[in-house]
Structures are given as C-alpha cells and as structure tokens.
Amino acid sequence: MHFHKLRHTRAGGIAEVEAFLNHLLVNRHGSVNTQRITLNALVCVYKRFFGVDSSNIGFTPAKQYRRFLVVYSRKEMRAIISKPKGAYYLQVELMYGTGLRCAEHFSLRVNGIDFGGNNVFVRGSKGNKNRTTILPQDLIPALRTIATTYLEKVNGCTPFTTPVNSIG
User: Fold this and answer.
1) Looking at residue 158, what is its pLDDT?
2) CA separation for the pair 126, 129 (Å, rounded)
3) Taking residues 129-142, what's their average pLDDT?
4) Kind and range of the H or E run holding 32
5) pTM of the model
6) Which of 24, 53, 154, 156 could form a disulfide with 30 if both were Cys (CB 3.0 to 4.6 A apart)?
7) Checking phi first, is residue 160 left (phi over 0); if not, alpha (psi -120 to 50) or beta?
C-alpha cells in the first residue's frame, strides 16, 4: 500500500505487482531471495483473497551473483601464519593444518584430539555433523604439552604415559 501512495491493494492489479517487484530490484537492490519471497507472498494474497490470476506477471528477475573462491599462495599463507605469536600462533597453525573452521576450532576439546591416531574429532560441525580430520605431525609436541598441563590441572594426574620424544 505504501509503495502505491496508500491506495488499497485490491484497487491495484498485476501491473502494480510488477512495478513493486522491479522497484525492489532496481531501487532497493533486493536479492534473489527477497524478490522470490515477495513474489510468492503477493501471488498468494492476490490469488487467495482477491481472486486475481497472477500467472502472467512480467518483471525483471534479480541476478544471483557468483562468489569467487579466494585461494592464497604458499608465500601468502606463510606471511599470514607467521604474524601471530605464542598461543595464537599454535591456534592459527592448528586451524590451517587441520582445516578447522573458526567455530569448530573454538569448540574443540582435549578429548577431541587423538595423538595415537593423529586425528582430530570435530563434533557438531557444519550441519550439526561430526567429522574427522588429520592432526599435523609438527603440532603434536606443543598440543601434547598443553593437553598434559590442562589435564593435570583439572584431574591432578598425568594422562599420557608415552614420552613426547617417542612420537613419530
């Protein structure tokens, strides 16, 4: 109603629907989904309540833009990974080496790391699914030290009996 200067929707016809859908695309920069949802709602209202056949609506459909995948070179990745220091460096290395997403990384638990099988178990990943990924060999000593320190603090005992030097 506001788009057509407060005229009642029943007074308008298919031409007004087309004008509004084109306005969403051109002036309001609406997405494909916005235009699709609006079209479905208007078709439902006109068909169900006003008895108007809306099968021949002609409007300019919004274009769906393709997203381009960004791939970094090895040199760029080394530059990115070398910036953080200390614990942040280990976190970035873990995310890069295992392919973890940010949310997966932050929800990772000590019991989700299998040092014997060199696996990382990710629970409740994208789509609320579980998955397994590979644990990089270079990160095992540092992660084992952190896990040992944490579990000693929580449980009061040393959880790993295999020395770090024997991992291989």
Assistant:
1) 59
2) 6
3) 92
4) helix 32-48
5) 0.51
6) 24
7) beta
